[in-house]
């Protein structure tokens, strides 16, 4: 009896375990493979940059006269590295009439290594292009007199999700039978409802056909057409072909996650709470006295604002105090490495960049800069820096990139700005500013300060930010610059001398190599022009 | 005589100075103002998410039958925070049949502060929307039987530059006079050449009309139409209206800088030079013994790879050696602050993240991970971590965001992956991986590790990366995890105890508040579900 019960019990337990094991290993889904190899896809049509398109046979004989004032503005094939020549050779000429100088960047490299650098850069650029091009940038032209109605923009689906495709219809002349079909490549087509009198073929597949003898029924069915993304990619686009007899159309469905916000808690309502909104960031090297002067001057006006300090001095001293955050780096890691470190630590909505030899005064009203960023769509707003002489600089720079061919693009920088900002008469929109600015922390962190730039560098940050940073500059928020003028009767301190050695490296050192070499390799420029 | 000469000389000098001063102050250009205020613009049409669009009068009587298997996939209005209920209450049930649990995130806040948090979040979100929405996302539908031919996608101009608009034509039935006109808002229209027999009105303005009695001449003229962006913005789009009698069309011209590449020098050709390609990054806190074990194990296989260490221990010890870069942070700054610091310092193409208690073995072949990123378009590839028990984890997570309404979106995380990678049978595509991964440095720096996350956090990085990081996971590159199993007979060291106090905070501390509170506020989620 007992042994029977035991056996039965064991049998039950064994079966249960077996069933559970079976259920657990039951294939829940079959996985498909995806091809994510880096290989050149079908040539993506770029928008036409040739001066004038080839005329077809109908237009070949129609005369025209070039309008040079406009035609001259069109992009050329490739860019040329040239500045302005000539000009008066008078004293102060460069000051009064700044001429544009052109700097070919390949000169950063030894002749012996240049060819290999070019090839390596071309290979890296190819990979970059394959990762950054999207079918959503391809030129599509809507043909005239198309009986098809369809969405040309604004259709988007989250990866692996399903949407109704809006705006589909067909307006055809009376026929016996109306047929439309769809073809997609990164997902499948289907219908969310079935309309009487319409035959659906290929629903759930990448090619679907709808047929009906009644046009209004077909159009009602078209309102229920769905697209489901099946080939996962975080940010791409599917080009859908839509056809009816004798006519075709192409439209794009973007397949991507939405932009997830990165919002910051700004503290209680009311006046701008600078401590809750702003963190001051700076980098220091060997100039503890100047750094302390900066801190003391900040504290006169903002006693609880956090100050983040990146320090790559050789024998770091302790810098402490309430709301001071001091980071020690390996000796001499460098300027942009320090800047990137400092901004990487900011937890407030805005970050204020200052150099360690600035001095806050009663004119350094951060509230004004916060006001600009709170009320406009700008991402960054620069202020003004006043030298001991009284000369105040905003260092506004406009930048544009002229596409080049295999040699690389041309970067053009000019002093100045684009527009004055409505409502802020002391402020303008530009592309680069002086090293005293307030910015949205998430945007600055996203652009970053390239740690490869060890010594002299400034506008490289704004170059990296082109297209993502919307930059402004106001000349009514001023910080003082502790004097750099070497007064002849004041002897340099030891730390000043060491500082100068690192800060102003001799012409043949790595610094120029890194700055121009980086523009050449990293950003794929061949030329830099500026005035 | 002499005094006459002097006077003449003085007069000349005075005139020259006067002329130079005049020329210098000569107004070189008149600046226009630009409106960059954050205010809600015209309502941007989002793509239709209602289940079924309203039928018009023609379709109202046509019957249809809902296809639930497809209709059920469409997004609902708002998302609901619910997990899976019920399920077997057996031992190991959660292990064998992981149920989905749902976590409403507003619970991170005290009831008293929740309402204010919601309002503050809504205000910040509004600002974010105004900065991130673009006319290029607006729904545009091409009408059928339009005599106009025009580009629906792929037209782009650099800020303040000029392009030819491609693909313009009109195909009309014979008329006495053919007229087309264009209207733009962020730039002006013009013609690069003037074609005989066509009258151009409004060239150089925001509204331009072309008229001709000869259709082929008008079409030839249309091949010379140009657009010049005049209102600067680093990344926006101009919606151009194109009309002829009785018909209109709308198309978008993107106004933006191109994406500037950020390429890395990869060292000499040949086999993968791991030291030139990869930097190892880690964060440490109080576990110098484990950190040293990690370093020693790395050096067995990679003697010259740079290791960047972010350290926020209270009394930092010196960690030195060739290719070691040790950064000291303020005490207890935190986990993600340290991660963000470490990656901010990387100057190689790839960065390998490791925890400070990992041990490299012969199975930790970085070359395999480099191979994946060199040959695919993935941005990040995770490996596997083996515990002392032999259990090896890849921690693959898929993620999707279901849009919600004012309450916020719902984030859904599920274990698993999307596809197997063609050509790499041990690798898959997914959204989140374990804390052992190789990644493109520029992409990781762009996404960043939010320094607001002080303690327990992991997938938040991948959440922030949704849409920009293309993530993979390979299970054949394995690193060992120094054991965490608390053996009963081994007493914890003092540093172990302090570590545990910081690493595993009690439930009511700030950590949970920060993690969920951050998901609620920063990313605007209302709910997190996972299994």
Protein described:
The structure is a homodimer of 531-residue chains. Chain A is an alpha+beta fold and 531 residues long. Helix content of chain A is 26%, strand content 28%. The first copy, chain A, contains 13 helices and 30 strands. In chain A, strands 17, 18, 19, 20, 21, 22, 23, 26, 27, 28 and 29 form an eleven-stranded mixed beta sheet that branches. A six-stranded mixed beta sheet of chain A has the order 6-16-15-9-13-12. Chain A has a four-stranded mixed beta sheet with strand order 3-30-25-24. In chain A, β24 and β25 form a beta hairpin. The model of chain A is unreliable at 41-50 and 505-513 (pLDDT under 50). The interface between A and B is large, with 170 and 170 residues.
Task: Describe the SSE topology.
Two copies of one chain form a homodimer.
Chain A: H1 2-25, E1 33-34, E2 64-66, H2 68-71, H3 93-96, E3 101-104, H4 111-132, E4 140-142, E5 148-153, E6 156-157, E7 162-164, E8 169-170, E9 178-183, E10 187-191, E11 193-195, E12 198-201, E13 207-212, H5 215-222, E14 225-229, E15 235-244, E16 247-256, H6 274-277, E17 278-284, H7 288-301, E18 306-311, E19 324-328, H8 335-344, E20 350-353, E21 358-359, H9 366-375, E22 380-386, E23 392-393, E24 397-402, E25 409-415, E26 419-421, E27 424-430, E28 437-440, H10 441-447, H11 459-465, E29 471-481, H12 494-503, H13 510-521, E30 525-530
Parallel strand pairs in A: 6-16, 17-18, 17-20, 18-19, 22-29, 25-30
Antiparallel strand pairs in A: 3-30, 5-8, 7-14, 9-13, 9-15, 10-14, 12-13, 15-16, 20-28, 21-29, 22-23, 22-28, 24-25, 26-27, 27-29
